[in-house]
C-alpha cells in the first residue's frame, strides 16, 4: 500500500484551485469532470511533483456531516492539515502580501515553528518549519 | 483566542517551556545536518554542551521522536536520493553522503525508500539523462 492522495474538503472547487495554485504555489495535476459540476481535481507540490497529490473535494456541498465537521474545525481554529515549508516567517510575509488571513502568526513551538491561515474555502491550514 | 490557540499555549507549556533543553535539541539537529557527510560523533557536542552523551540522545529523542543516529541516517538517505537522481554512481553517492560501506548503504537505502540505490537510479533515469 502507498500513500498517494490527501484530500481537503472545499466549498468551491474553482475558487480552491485558484487559491491553492496562485497563492500557495501548487501545480494542477489532474482535472477530470465527474458530472454535476464536480471534478476530480488534484494538485502537487512544485518541489515534489511526483509526491502525494492533494485532492480538492467538494464534500461539504454534498454530504452534510462533512460540512458540519468542516465548520466546527474552522470555528475552533483547528487546522484541517499542514504543509512543510523551509521558512515559516518568509511564507507568512509572502502570503500576507497576497492578502491571506492568518489566525496564528509565526510561533515557535519547541523544535518547530508554526503558523495558521484561512484557505478561503472553509479550512484552516497550518505551515510547519522544523527548527 | 480560539480553541486551537489555547491548545497551542497548553502544549507549549507542557512540552516546550524548557527553552534550554529545546535549544540543545535544536543544536544537535543543526550539528547533524551540517556534518552528516563526516564521521561525526556526539562526544564533541557532549563536551561543548557539558552534558553526557546519553543525556543528549535522550533529549534529542524527546523532541524529535527519533535518536540522533536514526536522524543522521535519514539525512544521509535524503542526500543520497538527490545525488543519485543527479547522476552520481552508487559508489560515489555512498561515500559522499558519509557511509563507509557500500553494503550497509544499500541495505539502509532499501529499508528507507523501498528500492535499492540502483533501482532508485533507474526510476529517475530521465533526470539522469538531463544531467
Short overview:
The complex is a heterodimer of chains A (131) and B (131). With 131 residues, chain A is α/β, with parallel strands linked by helices.
Helix content of chain B: over 70%
Based on the coordinates given, report the CATH architecture of the largest domain in chain B: Orthogonal Bundle
Q: Any idea what the CATH superfamily of chain A is called? A: 2,3-Dihydroxybiphenyl 1,2-Dioxygenase, domain 1
Give the % helix of chain A: 25-40%
The third-level CATH topology of the largest domain in chain B is: Arc Repressor Mutant, subunit A
Quaternary organization:
heterodimer
Low-confidence stretches of chain A: none
Write the layout of secondary structure elements.
The complex is a heterodimer of chains A (131) and B (131).
Chain A: E1 5-9, H1 13-23, E2 27-35, E3 38-44, E4 53-57, H2 59-62, H3 64-76, E5 79-84, H4 88-97, E6 102-109, E7 112-118, E8 124-130
Parallel strand pairs in A: 1-4, 5-8
Antiparallel strand pairs in A: 2-3, 3-4, 6-7, 7-8
Chain B: H1 3-16, H2 19-35, H3 42-49, H4 53-64, H5 68-85, H6 90-96, H7 102-113, H8 117-123, H9 125-130
Helix pairs in contact in B: 2-4, 2-5
Amino acid at each position: 500500500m502507498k500513500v498517494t492522495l490527501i484530500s481537503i474538503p472545499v466549498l468551491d472547487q474553482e475558487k480552491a484551485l485558484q487559491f491553492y495554485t496562485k497563492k500557495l504555489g501548487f501545480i494542477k495535476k489532474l482535472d477530470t469532470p465527474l458530472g454535476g459540476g464536480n471534478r476530480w481535481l488534484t494538485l502537487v507540490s512544485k518541489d515534489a511533483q511526483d509526491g502525494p497529490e492533494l485532492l480538492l473535494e467538494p464534500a461539504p456541498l454534498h454530504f452534510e456531516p462533512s460540512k458540519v465537521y468542516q465548520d466546527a474545525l474552522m470555528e475552533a481554529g483547528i487546522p484541517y492539515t499542514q504543509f512543510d515549508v523551509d521558512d515559516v516567517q518568509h511564507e507568512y510575509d509572502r502570503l500576507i502580501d497576497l492578502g491571506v488571513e492568518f489566525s496564528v502568526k509565526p510561533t515557535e513551538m519547541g523544535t518547530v515553528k508554526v503558523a495558521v491561515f484561512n484557505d478561503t474555502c472553509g479550512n484552516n491550514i497550518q505551515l510547519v518549519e522544523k527548527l | 483566542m480560539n480553541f486551537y490557540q489555547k491548545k497551542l499555549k497548553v502544549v507549549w507549556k507542557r512540552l516546550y517551556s524548557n527553552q534550554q533543553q529545546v535549544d540543545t535539541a535544536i543544536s544537535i539537529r543543526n550539528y547533524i545536518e551540517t556534518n552528516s557527510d563526516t564521521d561525526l560523533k556526539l562526544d564533541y557536542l557532549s563536551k561543548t554542551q557539558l552534558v553526557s552523551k546519553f543525556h543528549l540522545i535522550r533529549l534529542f529523542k524527546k523532541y524529535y521522536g527519533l535518536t540522533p543516529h536514526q536522524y543522521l541516517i535519514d539525512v544521509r538517505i535524503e542526500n543520497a536520493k538527490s545525488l543519485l537522481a543527479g547522476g552520481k554512481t552508487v559508489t560515489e553517492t555512498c561515500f559522499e553522503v558519509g557511509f563507509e560501506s557500500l553494503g550497509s548503504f544499500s541495505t539502509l537505502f532499501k529499508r528507507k525508500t523501498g528500492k535499492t540505490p540502483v533501482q532508485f537510479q533507474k526510476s529517475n533515469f530521465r533526470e539522469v539523462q538531463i544531467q
